[in-house]
Write a structure and sequence with these properties.
globular, mainly alpha, two-stranded antiparallel ribbon, 480 residues
Length: 480
């Protein structure tokens, strides 16, 4: 049991409280946030090394599972911690260089609480505490969403909260049903008890499984529960929308974790229920995302629909519930998070500057998002096509990529290359410092491409751990 395991949750929470006390000292807040984000990234990289040795538990108060709160580090949670910390550091650099944090006293406090909620969601081994961290995410993300004010932003924030409160209500119903049947909410304990459940209780567990899928589908913006995302992401401040690129991945993470550990396809009570529901919904999500990109005329809204489409691709990989498709999905998860964040940062800069540097960055990020060679989006989709090998997914992926490409080409032409589309004052490049964060995103995408071989080999190990969770169950100390 390594004490470092609690640090990704405690560190941002403690520093967030300190930044609240220093809310009138912006320089101190910036320094605290930067140091914390850098420390979280270094810690996450170190935890990858720990996770490679096998799942590592942390029992809060030394209470054993299923009675106490348990955090468990495995390769998947370490991967998500690293992605979150890297993205947070990139977004924070953009926030500071562009001065977005000057528009409200509590930006850094909310930002750090957001990191606490994300890290806790990825580490918790208990379904109820997953709900708790979801609520932390909701509160912090709403504050970030309305940062800077404005009627449109407040309306979009209200819709965002309403949808997520619906999800929270469904989550509680699902947890109550599961606890009534099994007497536990520890995920490893559930994996053991649900396998031995009598047939008389199968119907209740199927209801709970569907409710949980709906909750995670809301978080992941899966059709038909994606309505909150376009308005939320399009109206959020650019750097906040970039950070939100990892928010939908929480839903995908939960679907993957529960679909391989708690409700695997081999479970008699649920069988392939989750996969059967998830597969067509993922295809529809891809279609809605691609059509939305093609029809949108406002760049942030277009990027929001592209994010929906990318979630469809990711969840299509998840729905197969096979190690090869999971490997492809995890690679695409990394790619789509960074590509979406890069586009939102570019859209933020393009509000006032549309010079050649911004145009070049937009073209590179759009190529990555669409999935054209040579960047990582092409490799991710190629891995997925190779893993699925079925006509309908192939057609859906290729057609959605084509529509997304047409949409971005049209928008790019209108914004950056049409001489009458912009005033002379906008045909300038922003200060070089404001481009650093976007450049880091694109460098990370290039690194995903250059190191695709060793990375996918490691992700294959992550997938194997997920689909053979005996070590994860043993780390929780249940059933012994």
């Amino acid at each position: 049991m390594t004490p470092l395991l609690i640090a990704p949750v405690v560190l941002p929470a403690v520093v967030a409280a300190l930044t609240l006390l220093a809310r009138h000292n912006l320089a101190l807040q910036r320094s605290a946030s930067l140091l914390t984000s850098a420390a979280l990234l270094a810690l996450a990289v170190a935890l990858i090394g720990q996770a490679n040795l096998g799942p590592q538990p942390y029992f809060l108060g030394n209470w054993p599972a299923p009675f106490g709160i348990v955090l468990v580090l495995d390769r998947l949670s370490a991967l998500m911690l690293t992605l979150t910390a890297a993205l947070a550091l990139i977004v924070l650099i953009h926030v500071i260089t562009t001065g977005w944090d000057k528009r409200g006293h509590h930006f850094h406090t909310l930002f750090l609480f957001q990191l606490m909620g994300l890290n806790g969601a990825f580490l918790t081994a208990d379904a109820f505490n997953l709900f708790v961290f979801f609520e932390v995410l909701l509160i912090a993300s709403y504050g970030l969403m309305v940062h800077g004010g404005g009627a449109a932003r407040l309306r979009a924030g209200g819709q965002y909260v309403a949808f997520n409160l619906l999800g929270s209500t469904l989550f509680l119903f699902a947890l109550a049903t599961i606890y009534a049947v099994t007497g536990t909410l520890n995920m490893a304990d559930l994996a053991q008890k649900l396998a031995l459940l009598p047939p008389a209780d199968h119907a209740l567990i199927r209801v709970a499984a569907v409710l949980l899928m709906l909750v995670f589908a809301i978080k992941a913006a899966l059709v038909p529960l994606q309505f909150w995302l376009p308005g939320t992401y399009a109206n959020a401040p650019g750097p906040v929308a970039a950070l939100f690129a990892v928010m939908t991945k929480v839903g995908a993470y939960a679907l993957l974790r529960f679909g391989t550990l708690v409700f695997p396809p081999t479970l008699p009570a649920t069988g392939s229920l989750i996969a059967d529901l998830l597969h067509p919904a993922a295809l529809l999500t891809m279609a809605v995302g691609a059509i939305g990109v093609l029809g949108a005329t406002h760049l942030p809204r277009q990027i929001a629909f592209a994010a929906i489409g990318s979630m469809g691709v990711l969840l299509l990989a998840v729905s197969a519930f096979a190690p090869t498709s999971t490997t492809a999905g995890l690679y695409y998860l990394l790619h789509s998070t960074l590509a979406t964040a890069a586009l939102f940062l570019i859209a933020d800069l393009a509000r006032s500057h549309r010079g050649g540097a911004i145009a070049a960055l937009f073209m590179a990020a759009a190529v990555a998002m669409v999935g054209l060679p040579p960047l990582s989006g092409f490799i991710g989709k190629l891995l997925l096509l190779d893993a699925l090998r079925a006509p309908l997914p192939w057609l859906a992926i290729l057609l959605s990529s084509l529509l997304t490409m047409i949409g971005f080409v049209r928008t790019g032409s209108a914004l950056f290359w049409h001489p009458q589309a912009q005033p002379e004052a906008a045909k300038t490049n922003p200060p070089a410092t404001t481009l650093i964060a976007t450049a880091f995103c694109l460098i990370a995408l290039a690194a995903l491409t250059l190191f695709a071989g060793p990375l996918t080999a490691w992700l294959a190990q992550v997938a194997q751990d997920l689909h053979h969770p005996n070590a994860y169950i043993a780390a929780n100390g249940v059933g012994s």
